[in-house]
Amino acid sequence: MATHRNPLIIGAGPAGLTAALELVHRGVVPRIYEATEHVGGLARTPTAGQWRADPGGHRFFTQHEEIMDLWKELLPHDEWLAVPRRSAMLVDGHLVPYPLLGRELVTRLGFRSGMRGASGLMWSRFRRGMRAVEKEQTFREWGIEEFGKHWYRIFFDGYVRKTWLADPDSLSSDWANQRIKPIDWRRAGKRGDADDDVFRYPRLGPGQLWDAAAAALTDAGVTPSLNSPVVGLHHDGRQWNIELQNGDIAAGDAVFSSMPLQLLMHMLKPAPPKHIRAIAGTLRHRSLITVAVALSEHRDIPYNWVYTPGADCRVGRVQNYLRWSPALAPEGFTGTYLGLEYFTLPHDDLWLADDETLRAIVERDLQVLGVGDSSVQQLMTIRSQYAYPIYEAGRERNVVRIRDYLRENHPGLHPIGRNGMHRYDNQDHAMLSALRSVGRYFGEKVDPWLVNTGLGYHETGLLRS
Ligand SMILES: Cc1cc2nc3c(=O)[nH]c(=O)nc-3n(C[C@H](O)[C@H](O)[C@H](O)COP(=O)(O)OP(=O)(O)OC[C@H]3O[C@@H](n4cnc5c(N)ncnc54)[C@H](O)[C@@H]3O)c2cc1C
Question: One Gene Ontology cellular component annotation (predicted)?
Fold first, then answer.
């Protein structure tokens, strides 16, 4: 038992809770401080009566056995659903299955569009073949090279502008290889028959897993302190002191922080040098407003997700909740239950819109989606301010400089998770970074910053029963 240790954890999302579970596993009792009134962070399940919603559409998949084992340990087998992955893009009124299938591309959008796309792709591939050296690419360059000019324009340009709220020329492409699957030319229109087209999903939404994690921790004597925002962080030369909004101070030998990295650097004392604070100030986030809407009429939409790159609607992506889990709606509900995802920036007009304005936008979008005639039975709005770390040019270099500064000056301060490390992490990456950070805290030679740095496609995982 390592009883002399008393670490503190900021945030009870997947990373913070995983760090706590691992510490408990190794005989250490941490304290967890969570700003909001719930655990699960971005992967919580907000509720309104018997309605449940998923803020982001959380597919559970991983390439790491240790994460899969932890998920299985926390939730019993019959609470996990195996859900076939079915996504589509709404382009010019047509639903085109996504990830893109070669045969669908040349047939669904008409002969002319198909030919334009195919010749654009061949030309891009020819040019790639002629390129003498590998170079860092913007998202637009990457997209045109990968999909050809026509298919890039109709599927990705508008979508990236809408979801990333940035010009594709100003975005680096380093996340794209991990997240965007190349066109599949092999399987002629067949889907759902391979392991990688099925993901796991907790019956009651993603937060069910994190509620179970919190319950396991409570059983072990570690109950996260909710409604406890951390507003200050100070190393006094001997130990860490974190200051809570209510003025309380908690002291410990180490801190695992899943709060946004730039906020951490801002509240750290002694204050980091000016250039490090300036770099931290450049790290930005996009926010997300998810509007869960239950419509009284049933529409048969054979997809979990529909991406909406067109400029005719403001919504960026639509979740079809009953395809994720029927238990997200009350028993006996026979209508359609959708989650409209609006990508926004903190303080822009959408983020600041009042409920009435937002509802008008939602109703207009439902018309464009072709479901506007059905009456709205239930509506729930979920706001996630720090939803996506923005991948601007220079982000990687800047984050590395902050990492190096912290390593050298504050080895007992461990940034973990998606916003903690300012990375486009899925839950499993956030969890792994927490596990590796705890390992480091115990003196193991592991590097949490190496998690989620592979350049290959990430969106598939192990599937074991
Ligand atoms: C739209 C969307 C879709 C996604 N889809 C998937 C998917 O399909 N599959 C998947 O695996 N992952 C998905 N993710 C990613 C997943 O949500 C994250 O990887 C995961 O939630 C990260 O966990 P975390 O603990 O690092 O961060 P978070 O979930 O952000 O948790 C951080 C916690 O810290 C708390 N906190 C912040 N500041 C403070 C403070 N000052 N004091 C105290 N507490 C604080 C926050 O309130 C929060 O609870 C998606 C995310 C989004 C936004």
Answer: cytosol
Share of the chain above pLDDT 70, in %: 94
Upper half-sphere CA count for residue 219 (Cβ side, 13 Å): 9
Going by pLDDT thresholds of 50, 70 and 90, the confidence category of residue 180 is confident
Q: Which atom number of ligand 1 is nearest to the Cα of residue 39? A: 49
The whole-angstrom separation of Cα 447 and Cα 355 is 44
Which residue's entry shows tokens 């570690």?
Answer: 222
Q: Are residues 233 and 300 in the same domain?
A: no
Quote the ligand 1 centre to 191 CA distance (angstroms). 30
CA 288 / ligand 1 centre spacing (Å)? 12
Read off φ and ψ for residue 419, nearest 5 degrees. -85, -30
* Cβ neighbours, 10 Å, residue 412: 15
Q: Say how many Å lie between the CA of residue 105 and the centre of ligand 1.
A: 34
What's the pLDDT band for 171 if we cut at 50, 70, 90? confident
Instruction: Clarify whether residues 322 and 332 are in a common domain.
Output: yes
Q: What is the span of the domain harbouring residue 327?
A: 285-389
Residues 374 and 328 in one domain: yes
**CA distance from start to end of the chain:** 34
The set of protein residues with a Cβ atom below 6 angstroms from ligand 1 is 10-16, 33-36, 41-43, 56-59, 229-230, 258-259, 288, 384, 387-388, 417-420, 425-428, 430
Q: Which residue among 58, 383, 388 has the greatest number of ligand 1 atoms within 8 angstroms of its CB, and so is best to mutate?
A: 58
Residues 274 and 405 in one domain: yes
Looking at the 3D structure of the chain, how many domains does it have? Answer: 3
pLDDT in tens, 229-271: 999 999 999 999 999 999 999 999 999 999 999 999 999 999 9
In the predicted model, is pLDDT for residue 172 greater than 50?
A: yes
How far, in Å, is the centroid of ligand 1 from the Cα of 6?
24
Same domain, 254 and 230: yes
Pair 235, 295 in one domain:
no
Angle between helices 65-74 and 207-219 (to 10 degrees): 70
